[in-house]
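Hey, I was hoping to borrow your eyes for a little while. There's a protein on my desk that I can't quite get my head around. The fold is given in discrete form, as structure tokens running alongside the sequence. I'd be grateful if you could look everything over and explain what you see. Here's the protein in full, and shout if anything looks odd to you:
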Amino acid sequence: MKKIFFTLIIALSAIIISCGPSHDQQKKNTSEDSIRKIDSITKILIGTWNKGNNHSIRITKTDKLFTVYYGSNNEGEKAAAYTLDGQILKPVDSNDSPVSLVEDGKLLFKGSVYTKGSGSGGSDNTTETKKSPKSKSSSSASNSKSNTDDGSNTPAVTSAASAPTELTIICDHTINLFSWPATNANIIQGLSSGQVCKIIKKGKQETVSGKTNYWYEVNVDGSKGWVFGGFTSLK
């Protein structure tokens, strides 16, 4: 009787194992998911991205290589070759700057944020159209500020509006999140280019690797620490 029972257990185990996905099938599924993710990011990246002052970025793709065309109407268009690594386009030539796809469908390039659009001219025209109805309101606000320059509320509002609440890491390599605003402090974790950090407070000014900037205490996914501003979007 025991022999029959154990034989049934072994037979049922064999059936369960044979019904489950094989290692090769799991590997294939993982590979397909990775390809779908790359295709999705590629579709987002390809096209024209704009910021003000007639500056734009145009991204195309041939095989596995991306080409980024950038510049302004006055400077002329330049081009550089890139490869995709996650959500970051890394330059083939180390002299070029990385292009990072950040939250809310925004693109970060050379410290400036670009948004998707049909062209630099179209982007600027859209901005002017949206601002036009507010001209009366803006004029009233300007007059109000002029009349209350000696009041205590106006400077406080201006300071709060201009103070940055977050920064974005811009660096060709991984930089460190320190426990204290010093390069010899304990390292909490590494931060990669394009990573967005919430600012807690601004610290002391210092020169690191030839860059003069402030230290910032930040919150990165629940981890608090200090980063040097010279490797971020804050100038």
Observations:
- The radius of gyration is 26 Å.
- Residues 166-231 form a domain with the SH3 type barrels. fold (CATH 2.30.30.40).
